[in-house]
């Protein structure tokens, strides 16, 4: 198998990354429309929240990618100018940026109920398909891992066996999807699935970044790792606060009864 692995369609050779990325976004959105519970959000609010998520995800994805590849961006700035800032994207930045966009819009429109649980499986589907595109792209995608002697090592075209970190992530996400499906039928986890997904995914990404030959420009860690750490702390605090709130409400209900 050679990389990039171009997709042949009617005699055309199409690069795999934009194809799989677009397919992931399309199918993920279609899945969301199919499974979302309409009673959780008013139609008048849904569009604004979606636009907030889209804007936040774009800003977060390109902003964190620019920090992650700061030296490359600085080198490209002279030729491409501001376009150098939008040449890369990262899922971690997209997720965290999208979260901030959603929460900001929800405050503006006065929507207080949690809307994240319905997004978990669509996000997993979209990320998995996107990572397939990253894997098929090979070295030029800059998501492959460092040199390894593990049996999982793959030669992406430079004669060096490397960690296929994209495949590791796909395997993790498929296991996570199975766990999320099991928890959807558990009443105590309702309203916590998105927080749990984000916490586990950010923990995974923080760890897997050590297997990548990326620049560790910020205190021995990468920008993505610092963003993951911030997100992990946020979600640990959020889950603990929500759990305490539910426990307090349950105790008050028992006392009143």
Tell me the series of helices and strands, N- to C-terminal: EEHHHHHEEHHH
Number of strands: 4
Count of folded domains = 1
Shape: globular
The helix fraction, in percent, is 55-70%
Largest sheet: 2 strands, antiparallel
Average pLDDT level: 83
Q: What proportion of the residues form beta strands (DSSP E)?
A: under 5%
The first-to-last residue Cα distance is 67 Å
Description:
The chain has helices at 16-35, 43-68, 70-80, 91-109, 120-137, 165-183, 193-208, 223-256; strands at 7-9, 12-14, 154-155, 161-162. Helix 7 (193-208) runs antiparallel to helix 8. It has 257 residues and is mainly alpha-helical. The chain has one domain (7-230). The protein is 63% helix and 4% strand. The protein contains eight helices and four strands. Strand 3 and strand 4 (161-162) form a beta hairpin. Strands 1-2 form a two-stranded antiparallel ribbon. The protein has a two-stranded antiparallel sheet with strand order 3-4. It is globular, with a radius of gyration of 20 Å. Belongs to the Lgt family. It holds the Pfam family LGT. One of its GO terms (molecular function) is phosphatidylglycerol-prolipoprotein diacylglyceryl transferase activity.
